[in-house]
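User: Is it possible to get a 3D structure for a protein together with its bound compound? The compound here is zinc ion. I've pasted both below.
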Amino acid sequence: MVHTERVTIETRGENDLHNLTDRVSDAIRSSGLEAGIVTVFVAHSTAAITISEYERGLIEDVRRPLERIAPADEGYLHNRLNADDNAHSHLLSSIIGPSVTVPFSDGSLLLGAWQGITLLELDTHPRRRQVIFQVIGA
Ligand code: ZN
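Assistant: Yes, that's possible. Here is the predicted structure of the complex:
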């Protein structure tokens, strides 16, 4: 059986990290399924879904490696051709990816103690994000 939910998340702009773990657990509960997998997918090209410990230090630390991997001001063609400012956001979204899939059993996510399912905003300004939870199991 397949159970699909869509949620809307308002972000505060670049590097805003949202913990979705409780909402994903709620979706599994609503599905009534006992065991299977849940895919968490963000339907945008300047955001990402990842797994991270959700803690004050890391919420701040996340910006530094991202700035090193794709600095904002590299003379990107995307920005010049589209009068845009978020080429680095698109590139980081591609690298990190738009989804994760996590197994669950006895109705509970099989995450490690410090793993949280997170939405990472990569765009340069606050955005409204559509996130899809698709639960597949029995
Ligand atoms: Zn763009």
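Strands lie at 2-10, 17-19, 36-42, 47-52, 99-105, 108-109, 116-121, 128-137. The first strand starts at residue 2 and ends at 10.
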